[in-house]
């Protein structure tokens, strides 16, 4: 699939008073936030819509933090995927501290309550319930609406001759390419299943898919 032109897209994380933010969480399991814990959070804004002749906005574009607990429940499969150890979980800042720090980050960017729209793969049904449970003050800044990338891929598949899986693969490849070339962002480990990396990747995948939505003839640009 061919890449699309993104030169005019970098202001789109702040539209109509709402903020579109890449978001990802790593958890100790996938059953529910009652049974399992949120152990890492990543939130990303492109920030470039505020860039000017004086250079990029100096505020950090990426918020990423481990979240620690004294005790927790875990699924072996989940821990194998995210690579967290017991020592790392115990050493992380507690949820209330991370919650306060994320609120500060959101307010530094001028995000108003209920105005942030989380972007991610199944973000509304999976990640956001953990955010609301473990980071309740930060959750107040997020809308109950979300930009689920799987749903976007399904929708675009209906409007084109490509499958939703092909669109998803193209969006993820684009995201990986963007992260490799975007050296301004620091803090993530440049690997999948790190919440910082995945938050950036979700934003860039959305940026790619959004560019396709704005094109009259979707199939000519894939």
Please provide a written account of the structure.
The chain has 222 residues and is α/β, with parallel strands linked by helices. It has eight helices and six strands. The chain has a single domain, classed as Ribonuclease H-like superfamily/Ribonuclease H (Nucleotidyltransferase, domain 5). 41% of the residues lie in helices and 16% in strands. Strands 1, 2, 3, 4, 5 and 6 form a six-stranded mixed β-sheet that branches. The longest helix has 19 residues. The chain is globular and about 50 Å long. The termini are close together.
Keywords:
disordered N terminus, 222 residues, Nucleotidyltransferase, domain 5, alpha/beta, 16% strand, globular, 8 helices
Short description:
The protein is α/β, with parallel strands linked by helices and 222 residues long. It has helices at 76-82, 86-91, 95-108, 123-134, 136-139, 149-158, 164-181, 195-213; strands at 14-15, 18-27, 38-44, 62-66, 116-120, 142-148. It is built from eight helices and six strands, in the order E-E-E-E-H-H-H-E-H-H-E-H-H-H.
User: How would you sum up the global shape?
Assistant: globular
CATH architecture: 2-Layer Sandwich
The CATH top-level class label: Alpha Beta
The chain-level structural class is: alpha/beta
Task: Report helical residue fraction.
Answer: 40-55%
Rg value? 17 Å
By CATH's scheme, which homologous superfamily applies?
A: Ribonuclease H-like superfamily/Ribonuclease H
